[in-house]
Design a protein that fits this description.
347 residues; 15 helices
């Protein structure tokens, strides 16, 4: 009979979280480095008062990357069409706004609900094939939604998008201003709240079962884990998170275009997650910060060829830091810890 200890002793297809990674949020307790990380948005609010729009974009992209990390980093479901849920959330807020329903929290709730429904329905298609088939299904769903939004231009605005979205003050008190203060603080607080929920989720027995499925799905049924139900559940949750991210983008920009459903949006998201490191929650957040800041700086330096330098950085990262920024940092800290232990044992 297979026991949990046998699972732990089995060779892992994906390396488990090291002790160094656990110091950055791998354990159930909050670590000092995590508190420091969440102080950074507060510091950025005071240090960069002229860059609230950029900071808001980082917060929204971080939530979008977190949604993909839940299904890819923890459940092993790779997706090239995650922008489908992002776009559903954005268009939900857009269509509500042009009809006078501009309450921000109601928009977030409906966007999460509709994106979750789409994720739940499409998740059953993912269970029928291999990893390549899942990749094609996710891409196909996103492409179909893109063409539907383009075709029914009388509803979605087509290539012109949906401008002039009405967004009421948050909680009836905090109105979106021209300086972007509320446009930054509001997505930042939503990001923190949903990150806290995601952190509780991945450190629960449900989250541990997802890691077991990713590492060795063939052994999990012996422990009584319903694999298909677990995958459907986490895919639905990830879709809801992406829908909220899309809704935040529509509310802060007060505009929705076909770009939210584009393949480029999904591809950039996957690059962001690989850049930061998968299966660590903070990987998507750090990847979003590095990617957007690098994109902003490089486009200012060289508006025509900034893609080249960004692509070169990604190639070097894949060659020399395959675990992403967090994975490489964790391996370095772990090697230092092992060397210190060996030095302590030496005569």
């Amino acid at each position: 009979m297979t026991t949990p200890s046998a699972i732990d002793a089995a060779p892992h297809r994906c390396a488990p979280l090291s002790a160094a990674t656990q110091r950055f949020g791998g354990g159930a307790r909050w670590r000092p480095l995590e508190y420091l990380f969440w102080c950074l948005p507060v510091v950025a609010y005071f240090l960069f008062p002229g860059n609230y729009l950029l900071l808001s974009q980082i917060a929204i992209t971080s939530l979008f990357a977190l949604s993909l990390d839940l299904i890819f980093g923890y459940a092993g479901i790779i997706s090239l069409g995650h922008a489908a849920f992002f776009g559903v959330g954005a268009y939900t807020v857009g269509l509500l706004g042009v009809r006078g329903v501009g309450d921000p929290l109601l928009g977030l709730a409906l966007a999460a609900l509709l994106a979750a429904v789409l994720g739940f329905l499409s998740s059953f298609l993912l269970l029928r094939g291999s990893e390549l088939a899942r990749l094609m299904v996710t891409l196909g769903v996103a492409l179909m939604l893109y063409e539907l939004a383009n075709k029914f231009s009388d509803v979605t605005g087509g290539v012109d998008g949906i401008p002039g979205i009405e967004v009421k003050p948050v909680l009836g008190l905090f109105e979106f201003d021209l300086f972007g203060r509320v446009g930054y603080l509001y997505p930042g607080l939503v990001l923190y709240a949903l990150f806290w929920l995601a952190r509780r989720l991945v450190h629960s027995p449900f989250g541990q079962s997802l890691r077991g499925i990713r590492m060795n799905a063939e052994r999990m049924p012996a422990l009584g884990v319903p694999i298909n139900r677990r995958l459907v559940a986490i895919y639905t949750v990830g879709a809801a998170y992406a829908g909220v991210a899309g809704a935040l983008l529509a509310q802060t920009n007060q505009f929705v275009s076909l770009a939210v459903l584009s393949f480029e949006n999904s591809a950039d998201l996957l690059l962001i997650l690989i850049l930061g490191g998968t299966g660590r929650l903070y990987g998507g957040l750090i990847g979003a910060i590095v990617f957007i800041v690098a994109k902003h700086v490089l486009s200012d330096i060289n508006p025509q060829y900034w893609h080249f330098w960004l692509g070169l950085a990604l190639v070097l990262l894949v060659m020399f830091a395959r675990g992403g920024i967090l994975g490489t940092a964790a391996q370095w800290l772990e090697s230092r810890r092992q060397r210190a232990q060996q030095a302590a044992r030496a005569p």
